[in-house]
Amino acid sequence: MIAKNLRLAPIAMVALPVATLMLAGTLAAQTAASSPQAAIAVRQANYKKMGAAMKTLNDQLKGNAPAKTVILGAAQALAMAAREQPRQFPVGSGPAAGVTTDALPNIWTDRKTFDGQMARMIAESAKLVTVINGGNMDSIRVQAKATGATCAACHRQFRADT
Amino acid sequence: MLSAPEPRFVRIWDAPIRLFHWLLVGLIAFSWWSGEQHEMEWHRLSGYGILALLIFRLYWGFTGGRTARFVQFVRGPRAALHYVRSLGQSDYKTPEGHNPVGGWSVLLLLGALAAMVTAGLFAVDVDGLESGPLANFVSFDLGRLSSGIHGVLFNILLVLMTLHIGAILFYLIGLRHNLIGPMIHGRRRTADNEATASLDASPWKALAGIMAAGLFTYMIAQGFRL
Predict the structure, then answer these.
(1) Domains of chain A, with CATH numbers?
(2) Is residue B226's pLDDT more than 50?
(3) Are A89 and A41 spatial neighbours (Cβ–Cβ below 8 Å)?
(4) Residues of B with CB below 8 A from A54's CB?
(5) How large is the ipTM?
């Protein structure tokens, strides 16, 4: 018994601290995600991804022969990041959070409208992926415009114009 | 009774320079307005107009009328200092064309505008929806940086334009010397004994410059996708 335990000891000596660290890490990540500052960081990173994807898409559509794989990749990145966004606006993550944010306070006072805009963004960006898979370039241009319009409409209402 | 001598006029600004100046004033105002209103289609067109004007001005600085040429008005700091000191003296002597300080003001204004137009060509908005015609050559982050620089340069341009207008008012009120009239009609009242040489502005050279500026601007506006 004793010998067996002794043989296990070296493994336990490595495994235990690793397990503890992993647990601590998970807990830290959970608390971080719920803090307003962390939410601001996450949603800003997501918006940057979406802006970059939109630029890639529009750069391609400006030309005569857009590359389908490129615009599909951009649209997928856009749709994926869009689905992440609604949960990144917890109460208290407005301008009062002490972190620089262009999020206007009316996001939290007019939450229903804001959520409606979010839903529209998610729906239009998802549709964009479908339309690109369809392959009709005219429809793709129309849907890219419609998707962009949801960004602009929401920004006019809920984002500080800097 | 002695009648006053007929006032004599000397031409100091050629027509292309005056047209350049007032079109620039209009387009800067329109660019500001369209930018503030997010009328980006108009804002881009207005920017192309300014770009064409700047290309023409650069060309005209080597081929235009005497007072339009860089060699005539780009002077060293010593000449500028000497000129500033001469302003304090009672009898103000009008230099032909730009004075040595005004020359620097012109270079700064043109430089700021050129930098601003260049930044605009690569700029991207926060949504990745609107962009300059050359933005596809840079990343989203660089495009955003370019957009930021575009905005900062506008504030610098505002300072330079304020100085420009302030100087004109100083000449008008302080030195009783009207600079606005000549920029409109091209002529300045002159003393009898002053030599009046022609400006030598060739309309054919002007036409060639306008066409070259137009073509160049068109190519840039198309993002070189010809």
Answers:
(1) 35-158 (1.20.120.10)
(2) yes
(3) no
(4) 127-129
(5) 0.79
